[in-house]
Amino acid sequence: MVLRALQRETTVSRADLARMTGLARPTVSEVVKHLLLDGIVVETGQSQETRPGKPAVMLRLDHDATQVIAIDLSDPAGFRAALCTPDGRIIERAMRPAGVDAVAAALAMAIELAAVATRPLLGIGIGIPVESGRGSDGAAGAELTETLHRNLQVETRTPVRVSNVADLVALAEHRNGRHGDFLMVRLDERGSTALHLGPTEGAHSTARELAHLVVDDAPDAGSPTCVCGRSGCIHSWIGSAALAARIDAAYDARETRRAAAHHLGRSLAGITAALDLKRVVISGADAIVDSTFCDDVAEVLRTSTALPSGAPIEVDPASIGQDAVLRGAAAHVAGSALGVR
To answer: I want to staple 307 with a disulfide (CB 3.0 to 4.6 A). Which of 167, 184, 201, 311 is the partner?
Structure first.
């Protein structure tokens, strides 16, 4: 409770913490004493607020006291990793080319970054893509998760946390100031979603690949074919590599992007209507996901759910760029180790 209160505020006093958590002041003082000894919290000086009595000593989390290794295994162009502070600031980077074994690449990058760490490691956070239509808790994802745990935790002697990239991007967005309920949509090789509920809980383990729905009303010989074997499936329309190739080859790139946004909106309409969600956040390549793409998705959501044209549905691009998975992985490790979301 104390760590979460400190996470929400820049600096606070012990009296502030007692008021915010509802804990007795002696309890707060004892907790703070141990956090100071552990180096997780630091005193920043006396409060400048004018009030009767002795000035309060202010406290804040020390995000430089520990470090985290974050790894992103979702990019088909290559695997990326970073040594980070728990709040997501990147200190050192590592990369491995596409085509090599993902587990071997993750282990090599973890060892490389652990060697240059200058603070104790809280853990290793790893983002994996939704596997073969079965979320990260399905057979393929579970096997990869188990292998990563077994190899990296044994070799590095550091706790390992594996999560779905959509969940991690949602968590990164939350930590970057996007609060309230929203549906995160991650566009990579296929599309996946994560549901963020509540102002403070952080991203839940809800990442799933979008269902393989045929969203093209009249697929023909020119319609893209999905890995599921059907023409006009949503994943054949929004898969990042395939969509980027169609945009490059198109006579009218704007129309190609608009068609993809239209199909994505149709596939999300049932989810947003059933859960009464008013906000969608889309994460993907900058060349695809921009404000115009999001406006097109929003319009389809309104028309598909019979809402007025001015209905308050917000569809926005993710606020964090290519490091969103890395920053989410760092936040996941910090949350698990420190109880901070």
So the answer is: 311
- pTM exceeding the 0.70 threshold for the entire prediction: yes
- Cβ-in-10-Å burial (0-12, 13-18, 19+) of 95 comes to middle
The CATH number assigned to the domain holding 297 equals 3.30.420.40
* Whether the Cβ atoms of residue 266 and residue 215 lie closer than 8 Å to each other: yes
How distant, in Å, are the alpha carbons of 72, 124, 207 from that of 168?
10, 13, 9
Rounded CA gap, 329 and 72, in Å? 8
Residue 174 lies in a domain: no
User: Tokens 């929004």 identify what position?
Assistant: 238
**Same domain for 155 and 131:** yes
User: Hey, is 119 helix, strand or coil?
Assistant: coil
265 part of a folded domain = yes
* Distance between CA atoms of residues 212 and 174, nearest Å: 28
Mean pLDDT (the chain, rounded) = 82
Residues pairing with 45 in the sheet = 58
Same domain, 203 and 159: no
Number of residues that make up the chain: 341
Burial classification of residue 334, based on how many CB atoms lie within 10 Å of its CB (0-12 exposed, 13-18 middle, 19 or more buried): buried
In a domain, 82, yes or no: yes
pLDDT in tens, the chain (341 residues): 888 788 777 788 898 899 988 999 999 999 999 988 888 888 888 776 766 667 788 888 887 888 999 999 988 788 999 999 988 899 999 999 988 899 999 999 999 999 999 998 989 999 998 653 344 445 556 788 889 988 898 888 999 999 888 889 988 888 887 777 888 898 887 778 777 765 544 444 465 777 777 777 665 555 667 777 777 788 877 877 778 877 888 788 888 889 889 989 988 988 888 888 889 999 888 888 899 999 999 999 988 876 666 667 899 999 888 899 999 999 899 888 776 55
Cβ–Cβ under 8 Å, residues 335 and 201: no
Domain containing 192: what range?
Answer: 179-317
